[in-house]
Amino acid sequence: MKHIVTVTVLVIVATVLVFLVLRGAQLVPEAASAESTYVDEMFYAMILVISFVFSLIVVLMLYSIVVFRRKPGDTTDGPHVTGHTGLEITWTVVPFLVVMAFGVWGAMHLEEITAAEPDELEVRVLGFQFGWRFEYPDAGVTSNQLYLPVDRQTRFVLTSQDVIHSFWIPEFRIKQDAVPGMFTELRITPTEVGDYRVRCAELCGYAHAAMYAPVVVVEQQDFEAWLEGEAVAVPETETTPAERGALLSNENGCLSCHSIDGTTLVGPTWLGLYGSERPLDDGSTVTADDEYLHTAIVDPAAQIVQGFPNVMPQTYGSLPEEDIQALVEYIKSLGEE
Amino acid sequence: MKILSLGIIRGIAGQIVATALGIGLVVVTRLLMGLDPWAGDEAIVVVGGISGVIGFLIAIGAFNDWVQWARGKEVPLRHGPPPDRPAWTRYFGVDYDHKVIGIQYSVLSIILIIVSGTTASIFRLELAAAGPDFLDPMVYNTMIGIHGWGMLAATLIGIAGFSNYLLPLLLGARDMAFPRLNAFAFWINVPTGFVFWASMLLGGWDTGWTAYPPLSALAPLGMQLYFVSVFFYGLSSILGALNLVATIVGLRAPGMTAFRMPIMAWGILAASIISLTATQLISLAFLMVVMQRVLGMGFFDPAQGGQPLLFQHLFWFYSHPAVYVFVLPGLGIISELLPVFARKPLFGYKWVALSSIAIAIFGGLVWAHHMFTSGMPEWLRIPFMFSTLLVAVPTGVKFFSWVATIWGGKLVFPTPMLFVLGALSVFLIGGLSGPPNGIVTVDLFVHDTYWVVGHFHATLFGGFIFPFFAALYYWFPKVTGRMYNERLGRIHFALMTPAFWVQTLGQIRVGLLGMRRRIVDWDPALNLDAWQTAITIATWVIALSVGIMIVNLIWSAWRGRVAERNPWGSRSPEWQIPSPTPDYNYGHPIQVVGDPYDYGLPGSRYVVVDAAAAGE
To answer: What is residue B449's three-state secondary structure?
Structure first.
């Protein structure tokens, strides 16, 4: 009986201590969406239960190890206790009820975070190796940055052009895979103005670790101003092919892997590329002319430049021919002076 | 002694020849069809890989007895060292003694643990600091898969190791139910290991062990060898499970009713039922990607009407229950050893036994909890959340029963007991970090982060690695007749356990802060430097401690002090006969006359063993 009292006190003390330490340790990132509230509330409720069960088991184990050691010289066995049906039923039924209660609560939370609000903003998200593109269908704007208005629900409709990616902003908590051939959905209401980052959470190949996109959460009026500015920035006519190529390279995510300032990313930089001699993997050398650039876009595996991995998606071959030409023109404009 | 009389050398030669024949078959077929032979590289790799494994098995003689049977000849089963060659050669060829096969499996498992663990230790260096260090992303992405599947294969093989050595002994049988199938199932793993590692030579595979298409459909050629190797590992696992189930059902000693079996047998039974029924699904999923790549069947290619999510359902239908295949036998070891070292009966034997079966049943109903973010129908997430949470209940029963077993006992702490207690502490972390993954909303946060990495490493270390090491120390005197070095055993424990706590809690910590799974480089803005460095140091400490164990086991097998008959004062029958275990184990059938764990009940007996018949 003395043992039981001591252990009960120790379990209570340990539970409080473990929970306070975990609660105070700032376990999760800053919360910046309405959905974070639900996730964090549930998470810390589970941390409370975890603190209790952890303390219960650890205290009982450590107490047994310290108190119930066999004394030196003792060769006898312990008491012949084979079980206790009441205890077994208790520790089957109580955990059952607790986890089922959490299940019901979790289902209610899921209902809350997937519910649609009337004035939601729609953003279409395209994942590709290795970047993101965001389309605002109502405004006719496409961007490689994700601008979002604060305190308004956004409905993301996600897909992928090649392999599976996963759309995740840790401060917003919840994530959703982008799967080729289908559309998936995620609703998020940002609650804090600020800068964040989309991080691809599903292994998608060579440059998966670097598959980021900037996220900017702004006030509604700033958001509208940004949309207008972007809409103007995409002139449909009266641009040179090279200018169009610059826009296309941004939209299609080329710049995730190819820099225009000489930096080496996953792929070769475009600065000074045109007209240069390209050493290939097979030991030969080619001159980067129009034909070479065209081939490099539509059939990237055909000519691998030395020192670079063969990871460029084959999907760019499906771009319209005039877009490919525009990209070539743009790369030419960055060529040797 | 001629070199080719050693089975494994003959097998390797056979694998090389058969691989060449397989490649030749594809090339000749394509030439006859008027196709460019070398453009069929996918088919060449697959057919070459498969025929190589079969060639190894033929050359080593794994089919010999069956061929003799088919020709109507009698082939008696014999145990014992080969009459015409040195005794050690039996470990390098086909041998039907379950004890030899158990040792072969265990040694192969330790080799795989060393190789896969070294892989992890190397890529942990890359992760110790932010920024690109020394690993190319493609190499890194391949290494995480080599580490992942290598460790899972080591787990399956390690379980087969102690199950094969111990189960017939603990049940009072002379051997497994199907000794020839047993040897066959073991030898599949050796050529398959060569195929698995050869995948690194063919460009690797940047998908991780889960190999989701479309990425796996686009990955380099090495991917195909990974698929082929998992297919054969799966075949071995199915055959091994069949053998274990048949042995448990059919070869128990007289008087050994279901609830008088050693508790470990329940864990092995539950795990084997899963292996026997679910492994086919991962093999099927991988085979479908192989066919998509070789033959253009677009099962998972949206452009051809395929569906990438179908793969995930098939894959997880095995790969989630597989977790219980990995941990249930290990939890059985915990339940088996605790009473011996607490000097007290296992608390609630029937509840512990049936909780294994309950976990196996619930475990078959939870696979889609790996897919909460995948885009499957939203409502489906609710039933899978409930079934997932249910798994916590029988797992809790085990935990509470273990604690009740040591409560009030007379505990002693030799190395095996230390590892059992270490297993409890680690499995507790794994168990408690499980339910948050089961709640859909929280999972949408922690899915594909290092939280999950920390969770499953704790689960598998607590459910397999720690119990496996406990078993290695505990039954070492049984297998070798000599004692391991107690001081080195304690040093191993004292290094590995705290290091593992740091590693797994560190992984959980960085995961919550935003560290994604399977990334070669992490964002310095996340401020993870101290934790990442600590995890890497912990990984190396674990590696060092395992090295100490290996030195201890090898040295002690050679020079250790001769062990007494029953060093642990166990009631189990294997300790009532001489060590190392004699051929044919007991000589006479043993008789079960009581309950297995009645420590503290004066005058009680579990088994009657005629020690004189067992080689005395």
So the answer is: strand
pLDDT at A282 over 90: no
Contact B230, B149 (CB under 8 A): yes
Q: Does A74 touch chain B (CB under 8 A)?
A: yes
Q: Under 8 Å CB-to-CB from B519, ≥6 apart: which residues?
A: A208, A209
List the one residue out of B229, B203, B191 whose CA is nearest residue B12: B191
Report how far apart, in Å, the C-alpha atoms of A133 and of each of A156, A257, B302 are.
12, 14, 20
Per-residue model confidence as pLDDT tens digits over B124-182:
999 999 988 889 899 999 999 999 999 999 999 999 999 999 999 999 999 999 999 99
Rounded Cα distance between A271 and A255, Å, is: 12
State how far the Cα of B347 lies from the Cα of B345, in Å rounded to an integer: 6
Q: Give chain A's length.
A: 337
Interface check B145 vs A, CB under 8 A: no
Mean pLDDT of B419-439: 96
Give the pLDDT band (50/70/90) at residue A306. Answer: confident
pLDDT at B614 over 70: no
Q: Does A87 touch chain B (CB under 8 A)?
A: yes
- Beta-bridge mates of residue A213: A198
Calculate the alpha carbon distances from A98 to A103, A329, B393, B401 in Å. Answer: 9, 65, 10, 19
Instruction: Supply the pLDDT for residue A97.
Output: 97
The amino acid sitting at B140 is Y
pLDDT band at A262 (very low <50, low <70, confident <90, very high): confident
Show which of residues 177-216 on chain B sit within 8 Å of chain A, judged by CB atoms.
206-208, 212, 214-215
3-state secondary structure chain A: CHHHHHHHHHHHHHHHHHHHHHHHCCCCCCCCEHHHHHHHHHHHHHHHHHHHHHHHHHHHHHHHHHHCECCCCCCCCCCCCCCCHHHHHHHHHHHHHHHHHHHHHHHHHHHHHHCCCCCCEEEEEEEECCEEEEEECCCCEEECCEEEECCCCEEEEEEECCCCEEEECHHHCCEEEECECCCEEEEECECCCEEEEEEECCCCCCCHHHCEEEEEEECHHHHHHHHHHHHHCCCCCCCCHHHHHHHHHHHCCHHHCCCCCCCCCCCCCCCCCCCCEEEECCCCEEECCHHHHHHHHHCCCCCCECCCCCCCCHHHHHCCHHHHHHHHHHHHHCCCC
**CA angle at residue B171 from B616 to B105, to 5 degrees?**
90
SS3 B413: coil
| B541 CA: distance to closest CA in chain A (Å) | 24
| One-letter amino acid for residue B176 of the chain | M
* Model pLDDT, residue B256: 95
Look at residue A234 and tell me whether its pLDDT is greater than 70: no
- Judged against a pLDDT cut of 90, whether residue A321 lies above it is answered with no
DSSP state of B256: -
B-chain residues near A95 (CB < 8 A): 392-393, 396
DSSP state of B607: E
Q: Are B225 and B193 in contact (CB under 8 A)?
A: no
B562: helix, strand or coil: strand
Round to whole Å and give the CA distance between A177 and A127.
Answer: 9
Phi and psi, residue A217, nearest 5°: -100, 125
C-alpha distances in Å from residue B400, one per residue of B355, B360, B361, B405, B409: 12, 19, 20, 9, 15
Q: Tell whether the model's pLDDT for residue B310 goes beyond 70.
A: yes
Q: d(Cα B488, Cα B593) in Å, to the nearest integer?
A: 38
Averaged pLDDT for residues A255-261: 83
And the tokens for B185?
């199932």
Structure tokens at B441: 């909303």
Q: Is the pLDDT of residue B469 over 90?
A: yes
> Does B343 touch chain A if contact means CB atoms closer than 8 Å?
yes
Q: What is the DSSP letter of B410?
A: -
Closest A-chain CA to B438: A103
